[in-house]
Design goal:
304 residues, alpha/beta, TIM Barrel, eight-stranded parallel barrel, binds manganese (II) ion
Length: 304
């Protein structure tokens, strides 16, 4: 039976919309802005897990009445898909460290580009990469399971990884791990580049879809690019997706040049993160409602 999805999803925003780092002042600024824009949770990047004071952040989250998710992308020095075992070891340690911080923050989710470096590779992955990555992720998922944390694998476009670019590849990697607490994390910005459309991958993931990023084709204001958001949100509604939806956008007006360069942000499409976030919150709401209505309509059509 198809489900209406009104009201089920929690909505969040990536911290990089507001701040570059995570010192006390930045924590306050980010949480305040998240709350003001009307989001339920903030997604905290754990690229350097040691930089996050989990105890004080958790206290602040409670003060603001916000929940939290965590994400990261590995670097080439911590790439668990590398043939160099020293690098793989470093990557596994980083993932375990991020998991500890996520757990201390009381996050039930750690996702992102956890399976390779997030960056442009100069060649395809080596033949043993997938099995090696599955072994590391199996150990990560086992430890995450003990803490009630779900691990998410985010397929990203070909310029940001050579291992998992599509939902189907993410599903195959998850099968290889045999873990039950690893989900697919779909990002419509990447889907727009790699998938045939924005509906089929959602339906193919089904119950394995556990987290969603929304971003525009140029990573700017939602609704000002070429992404077919109505198609994507209708797919979520048809799939009965009731998990988190987080808005993601980057500008060197906020984040460090290193970070924005890793994501190929060469021209800034915005400089006011709070305005951007408010607009995103409103846009997502409209899309959820429109998709809910459209899917309910098609249900009653097929009933009659
Ligand atoms: Mn994303």
């Amino acid at each position: 039976m198809l489900q209406s999805r009104m009201g089920g999803n929690t909505l969040g925003v990536h911290a990089s919309v507001f701040v570059a780092g995570w010192n006390d002042a930045e924590v306050d600024r980010a949480l305040q802005a998240t709350k003001r824009a009307g989001f339920h949770f903030i997604e905290i990047p754990l690229l350097n897990p040691g930089n996050v004071d989990a105890v004080s952040t958790r206290k602040k989250l409670e003060e603001y009445g916000l929940s939290v998710t965590c994400s990261l992308g590995l670097g080439f020095a911590s790439d668990i898909s590398s043939p160099d075992q020293e690098i793989v070891k470093r990557g596994e340690s980083l993932l375990m460290e991020a998991l500890d911080v996520a757990s201390a923050l009381d996050s039930s989710y750690l996702g992102g580009v956890l399976y390779s470096a997030m960056g442009k590779y100069v060649g395809p992955a080596w033949p043993g990469a997938e099995a090696q990555v599955a072994d590391v992720l199996r150990r990560l998922a086992a430890r995450a399971g003990e803490r009630g944390i779900t691990i998410g694998l985010e397929p990203v476009n070909r310029y940001e990884s050579n291992l998992v670019n599509s939902a189907r590849q993410a599903l195959a990697l998850i099968r290889l791990t045999e873990a039950t607490n690893i989900v697919v994390h779909l990002d419509v910005y990447h889907m727009n580049i790699e998938e045939g459309d924005l509906e089929q991958p959602v339906l193919e993931c089904g119950q394995r879809l556990g987290y969603v990023h929304v971003g525009e084709s140029h990573r700017g204001y939602l609704g000002t690019g070429t992404i077919d958001f109505p198609q994507f949100f209708r797919a979520l509604a048809r799939a009965g997706y009731e998990g988190p939806i987080a808005f993601e956008s980057f500008s060197s007006a906020v984040v460090s040049r290193d970070f924005s360069s890793a994501l190929a942000i060469w021209r800034d499409l915005w400089d006011d993160g709070e305005d951007l976030a408010r607009a995103a919150r409103e846009f997502i709401d409209q899309q959820l409602h429109a998709a809910g209505r459209a899917v309910n309509l098609s249900i009653s059509d097929s009933d009659s």
